[in-house]
């Protein structure tokens, strides 16, 4: 699946976002190495600490279905449902990606009209890992 198609799925997932507090909606589409796609959206909560990002929603959905091998995620977000600029994953999402993805995992940011790609290593160069810190 190409990056544009993956971003289109992220944009679709974004329509399901629950963001009554910030008005900032985010969608994510996670591609497995076997070609399956899992989507997620951000889900806010009145107690902000209980809010879950779109990237983690997609990852946790995939992991809960037994998936463990991922190659890319597309993320699209913006205020009031409108396509915004780049919407990079937060630090917690980057660390969760580091738990399940290799350093060359591709992160696609933007929308189906314009986007940029990064590796996980570029966005989280010094990820915490038990393998590296034993």
Characteristic key phrases:
134 residues, alpha+beta, 5 helices, 5 strands, 31% helix
Please characterize this protein's 3D structure.
Strands 2-1-3-4-5 form a 5-stranded mixed β-sheet. The chain has about 130 residues and is an alpha+beta fold. The longest helix is centred in the N-terminal third of the chain and has 12 residues, at about 5-15. Strand 4 (about 105-110) and strand 5 (about 115-120) form a beta hairpin. It contains 5 helices and 5 strands. The radius of gyration is 14 Å and the shape is globular. The protein has helices at about 5-15, 55-65, 90-100, 120-125, 130-134, and strands at about 25-30, 35-40, 70-80, 105-110, 115-120.
Would you kindly provide a brief summary of this structure?
By secondary structure, the protein is α+β, with helices and mostly antiparallel strands.
The major pleated sheet works out as: 5 strands, mixed
Percent of residues in helical segments? 25-40%
Count of extended strands:
5
Task: From the alpha carbons, calculate the radius of gyration and give it in angstroms.
Answer: 14 Å
Derived structural class: alpha+beta
- The sequence of SSEs as H and E is HEEHEHEEHH
List the topology elements.
Elements lengths: L2 H12 L9 E9 L4 E5 L12 H11 L5 E10 L11 H10 L5 E5 L4 E5 H4 L6 H4 L1
